[in-house]
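Entry 12.
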Amino acid sequence: RDDANSAWRTWGGTSLATPVVAGLMSLVAEAWIENLGDYPDSQEFRDLVMSTSDDRGYEPFTQGGGWFNASTAIRTLEGNNGSWWATPSHWNSGTFQGQHRVANLNLLRPGETQITDIEFTNAGQSEISLSLDATSFSPISHDIRIWNSTGNGSEDGENSTWDGHQSSRPDLLIPIHLEADPSLQLSPDTRQFRARATIEYSHFDNNQDRSSEERVFLEIMKWEDEDEDGVYVLDIDNDSMVDSEDWTEESELKEV
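Predicted 3D structure (tokens):
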């Protein structure tokens, strides 16, 4: 880009995240040595990093400990008032072969209970009051849509009314929550929304050249009805797919 101030995007995935996390951890490790005078072992270092990460509001199997926040971790080590961390920062309930195993899927039978001790460290000079509440996630609804892109918009495909994939606009635009439409609203009890796309195995590498022919990208978009016309996409032929003549409200849709 010509303007470097806008040349950024979110990095994701193990391969992309690892070098970033390694660099951040080196900064936190340096702060640990400077403030505590010794080298942390791997578990207590992990506890600090996970305890000071930003909670994204997702369940742990999706977000893990959250987003690494090196600034918060370093301020905690420096003893800023109001900062703290917990040990252990995570706990897998149940046992594996009679013992708790960090690296294994533990078993807890219905009706069984388990007790574990959690230690909170306050490195600051002022007292901190902690209020802990349990949060559970359970599915409210589950919606499945099957879409066939065979033919890529040509007459040979099942979607002959679709003009094919265009990188400048989405192929499908599915409403999730519209304040003006009671029939298209999430439940007030919704804590998390999850979208997942899968490809039929036979179409992943149809010609067996070890390169996928199909790729699916999902984006969550926020709609601001700036012209107050109540339209986020026209869908003139009512086929649920976004054709060139349908894509008139692009400026009102922003990726979240």
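Annotation: The chain has five helices and four strands. The chain has a mean pLDDT of 85.
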